[in-house]
Every structure is written in C-alpha cells, then in structure tokens.
Amino acid sequence: MANLTLNLDKLKVNFLFLKQLFEVKEVSWGVVSKLLCGNKLFLQELINLGIEEIHDSRISNLAMVKRLNRSVQTVYIKPVSKKNVGQMVEFADVSLNSELETIKMISQEAVKQEKLHKIIIMVETGDLREGVLGENLVDFYERVFELPNIEVIGLGTNLNCLNGVMPSTDKLIQLSLYKQIIELKFGKKIPWVSAGTSVTIPLMLAHQLPKGINHFRVGETLFFGVDLVEEKVIEGMYGDVFELEAEIIELQEKPLLPIGVLGMNPQGEFAEIDESLYGKTSFRAILDIGLLDVDPKYLITSDPEIEILGASSDMLILNLGPNEKGLKVGETLTFKLKYMGALALMNSNYIEKSVV
Which pLDDT does position 255 carry in this prediction? Predict the structure, then answer.
C-alpha cells in the first residue's frame, strides 16, 4: 500500500515562519485544516504546534478537533446547509455567513443549545463566490446584529477561489472601509477584517497589506510554503511537508509506443503517437497507486529523469528511460505533491498516512 507522509520538522518550520510574520504585523490567524480530511493523527500534530484556531469546511473534521482539544476555536468556512445547522453550532464556535435566513436558523439553534455563536459576514469583492454585495451590507448587518445568541466578530472575503480574482490593496481597503462605516453607524465594534488567505500573504511580504486587515485564514502556504502569486516556495519555508511513497510492482523494458489499433482509453482520451519513437524501447515501471487515489498531474517526480506516462484506476505508469539507477521491483519511489494531489490522497482510504 502506498504511503503519504507528513514531515513534522518541516511543518514546524513553516508554522513558526508564519507565526512570526503575523505577530510582527499584529495579525490574528487560524489554520485551514480541510486538506487533512479529519485525519486524527495529523490534526493532533497540528494542535501540538500550539495552534489556537482551526478552520474547516467539513463539520465532521471540526468535531474531531473538538474531541482532540476543546479549547481550540473552530471555524466553519462555508455556508451551512439547513439540515446541518444543529451540528455546525455544536462543533463550530465561529462560522462564515452570507445568507440572512441561514443566520436566523443559526440564531435559533444557538438559543436552543444555550450558546453564543460568532459570525463573520462574508462580503463579495469580485471573485463571485460567496458574499453579500457591498451596497447591501449595511442593511444586511442591521438585520443580523440584533439576533439573539449571535455575535458578529468580523467582515471577511474570499479572493482567487473561483474566478482567479487576485487580492489587491484597493479591494482590501474597501473592505476595511465597510467595517468603519458599520461601526460608526451602529456603534458596534467589529474586531476582525478577515481578508487574508494564502494568496494574500505575498501582499504582506511586500508590505502592501492595508493596516485594517487583521485576520488571516491560512492552509496552503502552511503546508506547501508557497507564494501563490509567484507560484514558488517562499524563502525560509518548505514545499515538501507532504510526500508520497509508492512501490514498484512491475518493471520491464517495453516499446515506447502501443501496438495495435487504437481507440479511446477509459479516461476518454486518444493516445498521441510520435512516429519517431517506433522501434524504440525504455524501462517502464508500474506503481501501486492510481486514479482512484490521485490525478497524476498533481504529482511531482523526485527524479527529473523519470516521466509520468499516465494512470489507470489502480496503477501509475512511469518511463524510467534506460533505468541507469538500476531500480527494481519492490523498491519505493517518492513524489512531491501539489495541493490537490495531497487533498486527494488524504481522502483516499487506500493510502496509509504517517508522520516522519
């Protein structure tokens, strides 16, 4: 069985890098843990780092956090469905919201459970995912802030999550202005402007983050050390906190091109034929992992000489060329991962997970 490893030392380096960055800027932050898919082992290591706030889009994952440590503040980060309001209020201390009727249901459930539930109102800033339009925000807030057992603790936004709209100083200043308008009109304090995600960190590093932005929700940069604008690992961080280990289950010298009449493969594709490769061979390796676990496009080979040729449901096919390193059946190859690759592997019941 293939194995997904989490390197604890590298995770700690990334965590301390971000912790220091946010402390210098006097910014609060929480870790988005949805990548971990509620894995008890990995969540415990996250909590052991000293993280005080964990965000997730699955209620079951937040329930696991609460089972591991009740004192961690949990934040539900997508609009909750009607049937899940009760569970969400039970396991999430805070939620991100943009629908008035949903917040009313949350209020009713919070009263029932004798809890104070905190709300971050999401504001639309151009990426066209969730959020209240700016021109409707004051009226929206007026109808929310008097609901029983509800405390509005912030205004938030998401950028670069659907249409690729990037954060900008102007957009973030506008969000900060909305906060000031509401505070002046209603005499209420809103502690957070939660506009920071991994894609906003480059603005902070470039000293272009408006002072009003004082809360971040960070996942990808913690786990992959990545600058999502430049698409490179930030200096001082690690990009390989996660690695995949998979075993070679067949290794033979075979033709480079398929033999026979070609039709559509199970993925709905036709093979591309390079006629210059007729008659040539290479060593091909099959690994014990496939499309059921991860899309090969999210895997990064640790050896640039190794080419990923494709995959079927349960097997990954590699071109080893002349196999100068003398790899053999039973040996293990290691891959670095892109975010969606790690997410798929975490969600696969056929992949072992371990801490190194």
Answer: 87
For residues 212 and 178, what is the distance between their CA atoms, to the nearest angstrom? Answer: 11
Enumerate residue ranges in the chain where pLDDT < 50: none
pLDDT at site 264:
65
**What φ, ψ does residue 17 adopt, rounded to 5°?**
-60, -50
Query: Which residues, 6+ apart, have CB-to-CB distance to 135 below 8 Å?
Result: none
Rounded-to-integer distance, Cα 336 and Cα 340, Å: 12
Residues in the chain: 356
Q: Is 243 left (phi over 0), alpha (psi -120 to 50) or beta?
A: beta
d(CA 135, CA 153): 20
Nearest to 301 by CA among 315, 313, 284, 318: 318
Cα dihedral 137→142→148→154 (10° resolution): 40
Q: Which amino acid is at 93?
A: D
Cβ atoms 191, 153 nearer than 8 A: yes
Per-residue model confidence as pLDDT tens digits over 62-94: 999 999 999 999 999 999 999 999 999 999 999
Closest CA to 212 of 198, 195, 187: 195
Q: What digits encode the pLDDT tens for the residues 189-232?
A: 999 999 989 999 999 999 999 989 999 999 999 999 999 999 99
Give Cα 230 to chain centroid, integer Å: 18
Rounded-to-integer distance, Cα 296 and Cα 291, Å: 7
**Is residue 78 annotated as a catalytic residue, yes or no?**
no
Task: Choose, from 34, 66, 104, 254, the residue flagged as catalytic.
Answer: 34
